[in-house]
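for the writeup, i need someone to sanity check this before i put it in the appendix. the sequnce is what the collaborator sent (i think, or maybe the updated version? ugh). structure was predicted straight from it, no edits. if anything looks off just tell me and ill rerun, i have time this weekend
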Amino acid sequence: MTKPAVVLLSGGLDSATTAAVAKDAGFDLFALTVDYGQRHKFELSAAARVATSLDIRHHKVVRVDLSVFGGSALTDAIAVPKDRSAERIGSGIPITYVPARNTVFLALALAYAETVGAADLFLGVNAVDYSGYPDCRPEFLAKFAELATLATKAGVEGTLQFRIHAPLVDLTKADIIRRGMALGVDYGLTHTCYDPDQHGTSCGHCDACQLRRRGFAEAGYEDPVAYSRD
């Protein structure tokens, strides 16, 4: 009998790869996508496409509007940084950081996991090619795993021992792409860009696009996603 697991599925490259890794490990996946008030909704439709392509039978979309707090270029009327150097991308916490986003996402995933009897939670955070986000670090994940046991009925009663899986946390973007390609991930279904146009075409210049494009180049594969003309 397969074990259930909850996977946070944003519709991006990393979360699609993480879902494929979890499925390959034999888990019965319960995917959770969060509509958090992001300025564009293209990643929500991408998440649905990825869930279908991976034959994930359980996929929930929940609405938690973090835009009411603002403070991020992804949820507020703040310009998305473009054409930053690799050095600048890798230093400091950028304006695209959404306050407490992964903490909120994991709390929702934990609630979902407890209701479906899943001890395993998967998310696609990465601490190598990441853009300075504090909630993508192994230290954060370890502390949340402790909290999960303390904060839940299943944890207190000992019926579930929660585990947080971040299989990509120590991989480069190129390594992530190679892993996904080996698992048959269709990256043409994913959406990465922080600042797409009205049709959903990726800008090619934001931090997320630059990391993705460099990752495909280093991995030796052609990126199937279209970008706006330079």
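The radius of gyration is 17 Å. The CA atoms of residues 128 and 176 lie 11 Å apart.
thx in advance!!
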